[in-house]
Design a protein that fits this description.
- This protein is mainly alpha-helical.
- Helix content is about 70%, strand content about 10%.
- It has a three-stranded antiparallel beta sheet with strand order 1-3-2.
- It is globular, with a radius of gyration of 18 Å.
- It folds into two domains: about 110 residues, Winged helix-like DNA-binding domain superfamily/Winged helix DNA-binding domain (Arc Repressor Mutant, subunit A, Orthogonal Bundle); about 30 residues.
Length: about 150
């Protein structure tokens, strides 16, 4: 289907464009994703962080380890469950967020500059509907295979 090819090509083009800049800021795309997600929050569980980022569970732990070793985030045992932990930016991590997040948004502006706010809202709504339909089809396929 041509729409699937175009959707994949759009994602790949965005990743190339975005990743080049993020790497120039001294981070990997996964590190940036975690810092951007944790910025301006009190922190979140590892599970929640995994759900809010585009990082697979297997990769997430390693990226958290590397950011922790750089002093950019810290883990805290969750009070309700000793098997889980929360992740939060350290003061150095907050400074890194303040350095890289606005710079990256500014870098991305030209890619989206030709669209009006209404165009972007419409695109977001349509993509959300497509995602919801795919997730619904996935759930039905899982139910049918049980």
């Amino acid at each position: 289907m041509p729409i699937l090819r175009e959707l994949a090509r759009c994602y790949q083009a965005f990743e190339r464009y975005s990743s080049r800049h993020v790497r120039g800021l001294g981070l990997t795309p996964s590190q940036f994703d975690i810092i951007a997600t944790l910025g301006n929050t009190p922190g979140m569980s590892c599970k929640e962080l995994g759900e809010r980022t585009l990082i697979t569970k297997g990769t997430l732990t390693g990226v958290i380890d590397r950011l922790e070793s750089r002093g950019l985030l810290r883990r805290h045992d969750a009070t309700h469950d000793r098997r889980s932990f929360t992740v939060a930016l350290t003061p150095a991590g907050e400074r890194e967020f303040a350095r890289v997040f606005p710079a990256h948004l500014q870098f991305l502006r030209p890619a989206f500059g030709g669209f009006s706010g209404a165009d972007l809202g419409d695109l977001e709504e349509r993509l959300a509907r497509l995602r919801e339909r795919i997730e619904g089809a996935e759930a039905r396929a899982e139910s049918a295979s049980r």
